[in-house]
Amino acid sequence: MTVRKLKMTVSYDGTDYSGFQRQPDKRTVQGMLEECLTRVTGESVTVTGAGRTDAGVHALGQVVHFETSVPIPTERWDRVMNAALPRDLQVQKVERVPPKFHARKSACWKRYRYTLDTGRIPDLFRRRFRTHYPRSLDPGQMKRAARHLVGTHDFTSLSAARASVENRVRTLYRCDILEEESNALHIEVVGNGFLYHMVRIIAGTLVDVGLKKIAPDDLPGILSAKDRSAAGRTFPPEGLVLVEVGYTPWEAEEKEFPS
Amino acid sequence: MTVRKLKMTVSYDGTDYSGFQRQPDKRTVQGMLEECLTRVTGESVTVTGAGRTDAGVHALGQVVHFETSVPIPTERWDRVMNAALPRDLQVQKVERVPPKFHARKSACWKRYRYTLDTGRIPDLFRRRFRTHYPRSLDPGQMKRAARHLVGTHDFTSLSAARASVENRVRTLYRCDILEEESNALHIEVVGNGFLYHMVRIIAGTLVDVGLKKIAPDDLPGILSAKDRSAAGRTFPPEGLVLVEVGYTPWEAEEKEFPS
Asked: What range(s) does the Pseudouridine synthase I TruA alpha/beta domain occupy (chains A, B) (predicted)?
């Protein structure tokens, strides 16, 4: 019996989930995926995600891997799963990957987007995916500040104080501020890894810059302080989306498939 | 004590409402507005809408009127109401209108939009406001059929058989098919009045045209049959939005305000 390793790209509206990670008696993304996979395959399936998203955070392109010996053709997996999943959790794509692929460990970068609705009255149809912040923000100042964040830095000041990891050096490849006609401001970040609450604290800090409470050129000092209290506050989860997870191409390794 | 008549433009996500019209023990838009107005004013307030939307149907610009003697300045009404309303029901605008204004009777036209998501997997973030219909539709054929609907016709074939009105002659000013990059197809109609389920049956019929089950030039025959069974099926409520209600300008009558 061939065991296949599958990479599954999933989207979810995080509003009604207690985050990605499985927790007893809570509605979680991992729990829901495992429950459906177990129902579909008749096997006890464990899912590993590229990263845990917090309660209320959304995803367009979260990635998970799992193993199964059920011979469902790869191209039919998305349909099978989507028929079993609730409407707020979707499978976008399923690909077969070599045994050494790991959703978290093989990831090279992640792209997140944080969206603010700066309109006086929030856009009703997008309210679940935007943080309502009805203030006038200066995007030019925010863009200047964002440039200081790109590169390799110790992000201690911009991550939750209770984060337990030792090494807080991460690389941001991009940090862009995008304006949209309809009172929306997107903060898009791409990086090789993100610390706990890091994107939400970057959002809160750039908003303080947009309000002119913090000057763009204060950012290097905030980073070098290595002190959470030097930065802005943690913005709420509803505006945050995990857009994409990037991997090195493993198609070249396809010969490794055991059959 | 001056009684003021106010026109209020409201938006709602209809997903969790049993329609516009008040019903005992049900969550309805009218019921929610009246409950909030009564709480805010301390008066027993009745609200009259431009039209009733069915359970699950949304609105960007539904219009209601009501009377109150509470002297809240007109420009502050939206804030007062939005602070009291749930997140899926919003007040966009409040204007003072002359006593003879009536949300339904003074309306000249209404604009509705029906949106189909034709992607294989529905757009997760817009799923509450689109009907998922993963088929390939020919928009050119739909546009040709739509042209036959514009004008003054007896719309018996395109309204629910159980509709109780006598006169089923209505005028459609526009019936447009708009394509959007992301697998969305919008059917936009503007008319002087709409019969029960009329937009949802127009949507179902135009989809049959898009699938080439009905030819564009069959539309005149469908209309003249005056028989519900000649047309396509009633499409589900989630794709339907009441976008706007048009009135003749009454600003000229402002001198009529009793002060």
From this structure: 10-104, 145-247
